[in-house]
Amino acid sequence: MKLRHSFVAAAISALACGQAFATASEKSAILDNYADIAHATYEDSLLTAKALSKVLNQFLAQPSEANLEKARAAWVAARVPYQQSEAFRFGNAIVDDWEGKVNAWPLDEGLIDYVAAGYGSESDENPFYTANIVANTTLKVGGVEIDVTNINKKLLAETLHEIDEVESNVATGYHAIEFLLWGQDLNGTTPGAGNRPATDFDLTNCTNGNCDRRRDYLTASTELLIDDLQEMTNNWTANGAARAELIAKGEEGGIASILTGIGSLAYGELAGERTKLGLMLHDPEEEHDCFSDNTHNSHFYDAKGIKNVYLGQYTRTDGSVVSGASLSQLVKNRAPIVDQDLQNKLKNTEVAAQAMADEAAKGNTFDVLIGANNKAGNQVVQTFVDALVAEAEAIENTIAVMKLEGVELEGSDSLDNPASINAE
What is the pTM of this model? Predict the structure, then answer.
């Protein structure tokens, strides 16, 4: 990414004409509020995961289509706070190192359960492409046989997740649960999500075999998600490891981490890997929530998480608000035009994200919008990408005005080197 130097120069010139600098105590307050918002966001993620578990237990007790829909709705609700937490990922190593356990994607779903014939039977990159843990009680890894008779948290976390060091062997987290609840989405870029029947979990009227093991997998993966979210919630408490790591960076280092986090999410991850790549390839397999067709929501709340962090304010799932000293106010005190520009860009992104959500309400979900012959839909998605890129540029301007050294935002080939994508 290249800074718009004339804009930054104008802002720095304004600084020289008398704009105030923040005191150390003001910066410290910003870091404290940032950590408080992180804690609240992860705590809400934990609480909604527990609510999901409760609904899943009700579904497994009575595996009806109505109860399956309730379980799916609880999964969608659980995504709302979690996606907002991703603004804390790239600036905090303790979060980024952990994230793969709960939100890794895309996944080779054949590792977990049955798949349609069109999925294929093997992969050069993944020997466990169709391992089907639900249907099998043993696996071979490097010629060594592994007993997978008992599907439990330990097996999923320590043996199966990213087995054979293949990243697409995602055995845990939100997307493993999503696949179990919806099954494969076989609709391509036409409307429709996965349509797994409730009877896949019915011990009395079982469809597609191994309903007992499928139930075990669903229960274990949800319990593991709760454990992982509890860990990260604890990391942001007053004496938590993530909060301590942030404070140890000092005020300047902490502010740099905040801007790294929101800028990298906006540009490389959300604009690039999760949005532009799928649009370029017109490939629904690049859709973030590909089984449920919930991608529009996940993108909306990712963007909202960035806004939360910059403005220093988060609305919890119970309606209460966590707020305090903000990065926005710090930037405004130094360079009001830079702050206003970034706030404007955040609003533009929100409008573009809402447009995708509005299309989804009409049946035009993300996978439909990126279809090869959907010019109007493609433009809706491209507008979102463009808004995020502009937002990331405004964040880079902020980094320059704050005179922070060594801050580098995550990139994406889909944005920085599109020719390499087209060549594949």
Answer: 0.94
Q: Check if the beta carbon of residue 364 is closer than 8 Å to that of residue 347.
A: no
Q: Is the pLDDT of residue 361 over 80?
A: yes
pLDDT at 99: 97
The set of residues, in sequence order, having a beta carbon less than 8 Å from that of 319 and lying 6+ positions away, is: none
Neighbours of 158 (CB within 10 A): 8
Give the N- to C-terminal CA distance of the chain in Å, as an integer.
Answer: 23
pLDDT given for residue 7 in this prediction:
54
State which amino acid sits at residue 279.
Answer: L
Q: Are 77 and 44 contacting, i.e. CB atoms less than 8 angstroms apart?
A: no
Report the chain's mean pLDDT, rounded to a whole number: 93
Q: What is the pLDDT of residue 143?
A: 76
